[in-house]
Design brief:
The protein has two domains: 52 residues, no CATH class; 243 residues, 6 Propeller (Neuraminidase), CATH 2.120.10. Helices cover 12% and strands 43% of the residues. It contains four helices and 21 strands. The chain has a four-stranded antiparallel β-sheet with strand order 4-5-6-7, with no helix packed on it. Strands 8-9-12-13 form a four-stranded antiparallel β-sheet, with no helix packed on it. It has a four-stranded antiparallel β-sheet with strand order 14-15-16-17, with no helix packed on it. Helix 1 crosses helix 4. The radius of gyration is 21 Å and the shape is globular.
Length: 296
């Protein structure tokens, strides 16, 4: 006779299983499949990931303009390092005759937001689940910025905003625009009375940390000191408002490549490379609401 565990004990055991293994366990039985998809178990699993010490695993998303996407992982075990490459090619998700062009990818707690010509894909590679969302006819791959976040782990939202610009073909101004999409219902909401005095010049640095989008914004200031021109911005889905987190901790030079990323799962980091010397510097922000940057 098989041993019958209580529901609470099964939930506690599965909440300690790595997310990478939960996809395989869904096919054990119908009760496990339903339990793994519950919001409570997902919250338990993610909270353990945040609270436990850093596991030494780094993961990057590598893409080209076509349908090829790869997840490159660097795992550290004691003093040994191994490289793991996972193929996430989009042609396996939706085989099509016409080519698929990918412009940007945003990662949020295991989900991928893939930005394409006139549609978005919210993709869970582990559970093999996909949600396709239309962008609308006014999509512009250079002016529009996207991010993925959530209010709860069953209420994911997509942020789409456009900084004021001028259409180079028609020489007509493109006004600012902010929209939020609820992934479950696939409905878009335009946020009225929204204005901001910054632009975004590094769209690839948009990321999501614990459900909140972050990116680097730039203010055009005619001063000799440009250290205050670049700043870290965020968007609050609950209040539907932008927030300025902090200025960058270095003198900003628009010729230097910069990138914003997550550090050890719960902090922000900024990378800057000097275009002359090619030297790379990395700063880490230990508390999001305090001006505390540490140079590595």
């Amino acid at each position: 006779m098989p041993v019958k565990l209580s529901y609470d004990l099964e939930e506690e055991i599965l909440s300690r299983v790595p997310l990478r293994s939960l996809a395989r366990l869904r096919c054990v039985c119908k009760p496990w499949n339903s339990l793994i998809l519950e919001e409570r178990l997902i919250k338990k699993n993610l909270s353990r990931m945040h609270n436990n010490s850093y596991s030494g695993e780094h993961r990057f998303i590598v893409k080209d303009l076509g349908p090829k996407i790869s997840a490159v992982g660097i795992e550290e075990e004691q003093q040994n390092m191994s490289l793991i490459i996972q193929d996430l090619t989009l042609s396996k998700v939706r085989p099509e005759v016409r080519p698929i062009r990918v412009y940007n990818i945003v990662h949020c707690d295991g989900l991928l937001l893939v930005v394409m010509d006139n549609q978005l894909l919210v993709w869970n590679p582990l559970l093999k689940e996909t949600t396709w969302i239309k962008c609308g006819s006014d999509f512009h791959r250079f002016d529009d910025a996207y991010s993925l976040g959530y209010l709860s782990h069953c209420d994911y939202r997509i942020l789409r905003f456009r900084c004021a610009s001028t259409n180079t073909r028609t020489n007509r101004p493109r006004p600012q625009r902010v929209e939020v999409c609820q992934v479950a219902s696939k409905t878009w909401k335009v946020i009225d009375m929204m204005s901001f005095d910054w632009t975004i010049k590094v769209p690839l640095s948009i990321l999501s940390l614990r459900g909140t989008p972050y990116w680097i914004g730039n203010r055009d200031e005619e001063e000799e000191d440009y250290s205050s021109a670049a700043l870290v911005q965020s968007f609050d889905f609950s209040r539907e408002r932008f927030h300025t987190i902090d200025h960058l901790p270095f003198r900003y030079d628009e010729l230097n490549p910069i990138a914003l990323e997550i550090y050890k799962g719960d902090r922000l980091s900024v990378l800057e490379q000097c275009h002359k010397t090619r030297k790379i510097c990395i700063w880490v922000k230990h508390w999001l609401m305090l001006p505390s940057w540490t140079k590595l």
